[in-house]
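Write out the 3D structure for:
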Amino acid sequence: MHRLALPAVALFLGLARPVLANPYEAVLDNGMKVIVKEDHRAPVAVSQLWYRVGSVDEVNGRTGLSHLLEHMMFKGTQKVPAGEFSRLIAAAGGKDNAFTSRDHTVYFQQLAADRLPLALQLESDRMANLAFKDEAFNSELNVVKEERRWRTDDQPAGRLYEALYAGAFIASPVRTPVIGWMGDLDSMKPDDLRAWYRQWYVPNNATLVVVGDVKAEEVLAQARAAFGGLAGRTLPERRPQPEPPQNGIRRLSVKAPSELPYLALAWKAPRLERIDQSEPYAYAMLASLLDGLDASRLPRRLVREQAVATSVSASYDMLTRAGALFTVIGVPAQGVAPARLEKAIRAELDRIAREGVSAAELERVRRQVEAARIYEKDSMFAQAMQIGTVESLGFSWRDEPEFVQRLTAVTSQQVQAVARGLKDDDLTVVTLVPQPLPKGAPKSMPMEGGDSHGVR
């Protein structure tokens, strides 16, 4: 989904001592970054440990490693047997979980603020001392295979998204599903996962984010006590995997049991690499103008006025370590062919390319941005997510005012320019062709991004 409440981004700053501001920041001697944001409205704390490793770091034949390792991190160490991590957090009145995306793997706990040291000690232990037997690996591998069947193989939306990214990219690792290809899961070995763990699960590849009713100096001391004794290591070389020019529209069709057809149009778009780039902000604004509320262009014109779609949405995420897509996905109305819906979507984009957008439309999105900034402050978890996301992508939490200012300063002319930049040479179109549903089969899951997977 496109982000309206955009977090702060800036170049990575490696500081030896805390920055005396809220948030507070320090880098331990082993290279691990710690960021603490005090929020004293409730006696709780959120701890998130972000590892900068995800599916974009994987190679052909070894896909799905990051996600499966996330599962195995709950299978115990010499000190903390399998299942004991979550039991200890629950006994302390908290809850924990994890998720994997293309860009990072995250482990988190939400618990009473005075129990934060427990979470840090447990995370430190499994950062250095993960131990799992082959039998546990084989059992969890079967769990992941079943997750893949449930979320992708047996879901028309999942098949559509997988085909979309695999078709749009041919060299970039963005084409790889986070959960991995089934053939790679079939051939995966326990030692593959142990090697992946040793390569990437080191303090200098991790950022700890804590938000809550805490004192920053105390949390930094607790983090040093928990993680300071762990040694950093040289990380594997991350070689660039540039995507070659597409030079022509790509069309794919996918057959799957489904009540309705789906249509996806995706154009390659620039990702944000520097805070002063202008195009990514314009693409983000265009996505929000097309799809944000009922008054947005696509729901208003294609669903209510023209009645060619039952639903239609636009998305763009500038914050990624690899390739980005500007995507429009729709479900044709009853009796409407996907080709007709495609024509209507492209006509709406062409209209913006010719005429731009109104000041009132831009102001509506600006108000959404400001409202989202306010509402996300109500959630400690959301605050930590914003900080961790941009930090794991090589930016910083510091420049949120500039980040938001650049988004809200986007003009109609800039939106018009990026709409004109949506060329067929960068376009991939995927149509899901519905097949009869098996008798008694459940309805398909709703369309969703499909770019992250959690343990439970």
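The first helix runs from residue 65 to 72.
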